[in-house]
Design brief:
mainly beta, 4 strands, about 0% helix
């Protein structure tokens, strides 16, 4: 693996994560995340 990216997600899962695999065998997760922080783009 040439590069590694890290992400921290903070919130509440709204449903169970779904894990599937690409044709090459790489695991991919899909999830829904709820947050309650307000964002103002000013």
């Amino acid at each position: 693996m040439a590069n590694l990216n890290k992400v921290m997600l903070i919130g509440n899962l709204t449903r169970e994560p779904e894990i599937r695999h690409t044709p090459r065998g790489t695991a991919v997760a899909e999830l829904s995340l709820a947050i309650n922080r307000v964002w103002n783009n000013e």
